[in-house]
Amino acid sequence: MPQIELTSGVIDYEDTSGEGPVLVLLGGLVMDASVWDPVVDDLRGDHRCVVPTLPLGAHRHPMHPDADLSLAGFARMLAELLERLDLRDVTLVQNDHAAALALAGENPARVARLVISSCEAFENYPPGLPGKNMRLMGSLPGGIFLAMQALRVRRLRRLPVSFGWMSKRPLPDDLLDRWLAPVQTERGVRRDLRKYVTSARRGQMLEVCERLRGFTRPTLVVWTPEDRVQRPEHGRRLAALLPDARLIEIRDSYTLIMRDQPQAFARAIREFVSEAPAVAAADLG
């Protein structure tokens, strides 16, 4: 798997290469790049898909001890990743976490389009029962360790405070084993996850969303009306907030639309990228 050394530490990423439009796909807490596999399999023939595993608990390499893992820190990390990989005319695709929202509000020069799907926003931060549970565990000595070790019991993963409300279809146990292994076995990974979840403040997210008013490039908001973690009304609020945005809803899914409805999600991305006007390089930034 390719790796890149950033200021914060080493990041693993997948890269399908190719000459098509560049998609950078971002997932959420305790998920690695494989969360996007069904969508990437659909899009890789006509798009270049770059999928980093951000330091949110499923990463294999602990970040430097002084790494800024606040929401603002993730925006800077993502901007550095795009620059170091020399990715241009990028379509950022975000699910669950809000790194792309934080970056978009700064009008990054390399981002031409934005796809926001069922992610934390506005007052829902940390989001839903899983987010609140993670923040509580992070605030207790040894809490992250105990919570992650408990998830070795596979039936506990299906509870709403864990992965139960993330996907409408049960996630494969071997996939969850892969996501959980780093945080279960590596102290530095648990430190990174704790650093992020304990830094989360609602005011930070409200500021991030307010700055999105200045992101004038084409945006697609993809939400599901059945979401139990990310509030369905927030999709409509984001679409109304962003100057050049439209909303589509994909039914029969929870937060992880890329796992529940991968073909519909891939189709929405493909149509959006093909229809959204290219942005001249001089206009980016």
Description:
- This protein has helices spanning 37-43, 71-84, 99-104, 128-139, 143-150, 173-185, 187-199, 202-211, 232-241, 257-260, 262-275, and strands at 3-5, 10-15, 22-26, 48-52, 90-96, 111-119, 219-223, 245-249.
- It has a domain at 3-125 and 202-276: Alpha/Beta hydrolase fold, catalytic domain (Rossmann fold), CATH 3.40.50.1820.
- The longest helix has 14 residues, at 71-84.
- The protein has an eight-stranded mixed beta sheet with strand order 1-2-4-3-5-6-7-8, sandwiched between helices.
- Strand 5, helix 3 and strand 6 (111-119) form a beta-alpha-beta unit.
- It is built from eleven helices and eight strands.
- 39% of the residues lie in helices and 16% in strands.
- The model has no long low-confidence stretch (mean pLDDT 93).
- With 285 residues, it is α/β, with parallel strands linked by helices.
Detail the topology: elements first, then pairings.
Blueprint: E1 3-5, E2 10-15, E3 22-26, H1 37-43, E4 48-52, H2 71-84, E5 90-96, H3 99-104, E6 111-119, H4 128-139, H5 143-150, H6 173-185, H7 187-199, H8 202-211, E7 219-223, H9 232-241, E8 245-249, H10 257-260, H11 262-275
Parallel strand pairs: 3-4, 3-5, 5-6, 6-7, 7-8
Antiparallel strand pairs: 1-2, 2-4
Helix pairs in contact: 1-11, 4-5, 4-7, 6-7
